[in-house]
TrEMBL record, chains A, B:
PROSITE patterns, sorted: ROK
InterPro entries associated with the record: ATPase_NBD (IPR043129), Cro/C1-type_HTH (IPR001387), DUF7343 (IPR055767), ROK (IPR000600), ROK_cs (IPR049874), WH-like_DNA-bd_sf (IPR036388), WH_DNA-bd_sf (IPR036390)
Name by which UniProt lists this protein: ROK family transcriptional regulator
Protein family (similarity comment): Belongs to the ROK (NagC/XylR) family.
Annotated organism of origin: Arthrobacter parietis
Residues covered by region (Disordered): 1-24
Length: 402, 402
């Protein structure tokens, strides 16, 4: 694996000098530099901070005063080379990691501390077919609002881990064709988000973040090989192999939704035919059921109808589950994970969906593999991807030395 | 990953005390202990060797004299705690690793030095349907013959890496159902081989060893993510992920041959229906072609017929290649490797097989994945698996410290 694809890329945050309010943007950037220097190097004097960040001692002194007032850092008198000096230490409980999940119809933002305690979170709806710009605007505004509501200063932000529902080519940092968000294809999201949010940004596929959440926040921290399958408008998987997220060659892994199920089936948005998504995504279920329901349906409606015993919905779910089981049987045959966790908007279905998935797995896997693979429903619900974004930020090497 | 499944298991060699010639077997075992102690701990005195192996100083002195005569070790005078002593050092060029590949119709043995130079190798035919005992006998006899012919003393043997054409449950060390060698199912091969060969033994699936050979002996040493697909009587894959062999949960990975291609196809030996092996293994090709050829065919015959332009053979290969391409498209979608290498008995076909495989890959993979995945024919031919066996022995941590 190349260095570029080994972990979410981390660009230096860029000042947005061409935008209004660039003075305050510059100050925020300088605060951020000082936070990063303290997170990486531990407590140090103002003079040391000035040397490390390249800022003047006057600027450092000015910023440290503000950060001390807001509780981000604590200062204490010390001596350096025989002179009086001020030692600056980061307040761990003042640091905050951001997780952002951008879906086809929603954006969710989570703020959490280095102890993985969630400070606040909120999800807001987006219109389907939103542009990248609109999605980004919504995420940035929601983040600002949560910062204000929770009284979190911008200087406390360690960075944001952002999940996108589409394959990301890690060579270029762009969303490639086959994404649930066709409007985002070709945009360099890493650059776009970094410039807009003005904090270090880590972009990843949403299913990868969901997988990371299972072994970080979920009950599966001891599992070495785990596949997280997100079932929604699209179907994608995140792979934890040998205890770490696996990225492969160019970063496009877990494209489970494009397993051929029916060689002569419907055309898929990826350009092939009869992919798993054309028979088992929530979009497919909805279009099958709307033919007889004569009213617009959503994923929560499917859960509602199934729990109420609607036969057509149960049949559609059974067929979808069998197809998903067949696709994950191929994954199990190849990868032999301990555990496959299902996530996405249908987790509330429980055994209604799990049963046909398990039947499909046992029907299509090599017997000893099928029998030794556990399939369960994710317990983090819609929050998995944003929580995974927080986990990406908190797992950065610079933090473990703070 | 559990410690047991992290690397090929390495049992202590057991003396075969119940067999004729146990006196010489015991001496060989003691020699082996001394070689292992020197490989692990570096040069040391005879007294230190005695302490480390638990052997008497008289036994150590006796064995060291013989090993010095045969060129396995070099001795030199030294002092230890003020007394004269004899320092014993392993001669690197005297050490030999063994690679053994056991197939349905053949066994191959390779001897090579720590510099990966092949000293000698030979393959002999086996009757199809041989018992585990017969296969093991043939391997042991061929090994003895090669040792005699090359003048290699048993004490120079570091161990043997052995490839088996079937899934191995690493929890128990047994071949599980679905193996090409049904007669071997349920046998604890690690124990059986260790007792019989009386050297440290490492058992692995043959496709895993083939994959290891590609990055060790082949031209692909810089590839981090490589899939080796062995096409023969069965179809299996070995996975190099992030630069190392990947074993998953219980060790049964790469079961590509059991990808469902035709939901209502022929019954497969694994118990499922329409698996890739039922449409693309050499056994299937042979049974299709024998209907009209009216004579018994072998895999080399298929290569011969295709190179001669036989239309039926070319059609059978085209259909098989497309199906293999479809299965590896699912692998590429999931794992996103740089390179997929085809091995097995059909490598002589070159583009005749590669072309339909590539067409199948592009037809069924997510476009950007299909386009960024290279498929090539292995250059090590029938030797890949046995060479991989040598690589397993030479990659043991004890050797790197010698």
């Amino acid at each position: 694996m190349s260095v570029e694809s080994a972990a979410p890329s981390r660009p230096a945050p860029k000042p947005s000098l061409h935008k209004p309010g660039s003075q305050s943007a510059l100050r925020q950037l300088n605060e951020q530099r000082i936070v990063q220097a303290l997170a990486t190097g531990g407590p140090q004097t103002q003079a040391e901070l000035a040397r490390q960040t390249g800022l003047s001692t006057a600027t450092v002194s000015n910023i440290v005063r503000g950060m001390s007032d807001s509780g981000t850092v604590t200062t204490s008198p010390t001596t350096s080379s025989g002179r009086r000096a001020l030692s600056v230490a980061l307040n761990d409980n003042g640091l905050v990691a951001v997780g952002i999940d951008i879906g086809r119809r929603h954006v969710r933002v989570v703020l959490a501390g280095p102890d993985y305690r969630v400070l606040c979170e909120e999800a807001i709806p987006l219109t389907a077919g939103h542009t990248a710009e609109e999605g980004l605007d919504a995420a940035a505004e929601l983040l600002e609002r949560l910062l204000t509501e929770s009284g979190t200063p911008r200087s406390a932000l360690l960075g944001a881990g952002i999940g996108i529902p589409g394959p990301i080519d890690r060579r270029t940092g762009t969303v490639v064709q086959g994404a649930i968000l066709p409007e985002w294809v070709g945009i360099n999201i890493l650059e776009t988000f970094s410039e807009r949010l003005r904090i270090p940004v880590f972009i990843d596929n949403d299913a990868n973040l969901g997988a990371l959440a299972q072994v970080t926040w979920g009950p599966h921290s001891s599992v070495e090989n785990l596949i997280f399958v997100k079932i929604g408008s699209g179907i994608g998987a995140g792979l934890i192999l040998n205890g770490a997220l696996y990225y492969g060659n160019v970063g496009i892994t877990g494209e489970l939704g494009h397993t051929t199920i029916d060689e002569h089936g419907l055309i898929c948005r990826c350009g092939n035919r009869g992919c798993l998504e054309t028979v088992a995504s929530t979009a497919t279920m909805i279009s099958l059921l709307e033919r007889t329901s004569h009213r617009p349906l959503t994923a929560p409606d499917i859960v509602q109808l199934a729990l109420g015993g609607d036969t057509a919905t149960l049949r559609v779910l059974d067929d979808a589950g069998l197809a998903i089981g067949r696709a994950i049987a191929h994954v199990a045959n190849l990868i032999n994970p301990e555990l496959i966790v299902l996530g996405g908007s249908l987790t509330g279905l429980g055994d209604i969906l799990l049963d046909p998935v398990r039947r499909g797995l046992l029907r299509h896997a090599v017997p000893v593999v099928g029998e030794s693979t556990t399939v369960s429903m994710g317990s983090l619900g819609d929050r998995a991807e944003a929580l995974g974004g927080v986990a990406v930020v908190l797992s950065q090497p610079s933090l473990s030395s703070s």
